[in-house]
Write a structure and sequence with these properties.
Blueprint lengths: L36 E5 L3 E4 H15 L4 E4 L5 E5 L12 E9 L4 E6 L3 H12 L6 E5 L2
Helix pairs in contact: 1-2
Length: 140
């Protein structure tokens, strides 16, 4: 599971992410920079470290020993949750996990060293583990 070694603040302010309103596309991390194929987010969502890890496992199993993979996102934003049956007030909840806010157009994973069909299949399997709509893109 991914999490930062030393966060600056233990509990961040959340911010708002309304998926029904138009989301601004990401300005950076939108092209295939390292590999030959990439998994690109088409919608926005908060992706947790467990979801990133399960997608990474799917890709590494599909690639075998001859492929290389890059993870282009890292969960550095803490998410909190109050305990069950706790009333309103009495402060903010305890740390639950870490998330990454994905905006449309962001490159999530990249792979190289395998044929195109294998790469496409591995990335689509990984996309099923994530809460965002994804598309497989090739390096131009």
């Amino acid at each position: 599971m991914l999490f930062p070694k030393k966060p600056k603040h233990r509990k961040w302010q959340t911010g708002r992410m309304n998926p029904t309103k138009s989301q601004k596309p990401d300005g950076r991390g939108t092209t295939v920079a390292f590999g030959s194929h990439g998994l690109k987010a088409m919608t926005g969502h908060r992706v947790s470290s467990n979801q990133i890890e399960s997608a990474r496992k799917v890709i590494t199993r599909a690639l075998g020993k001859n492929g290389k993979m890059w993870t282009r996102i890292f969960p550095d934003m803490p998410r909190t949750q109050k305990a069950a049956e706790v009333g309103m007030g009495a402060g903010k909840g305890d740390l639950k996990d870490y998330v990454f806010e994905v905006h449309p157009g962001r490159m999530l994973f990249e792979i190289d060293g395998v044929p195109g069909g294998t790469a496409r299949e591995a990335l689509l399997k990984a996309g099923k583990k994530l809460p965002v709509a994804v598309r497989v893109v090739e390096r131009t």
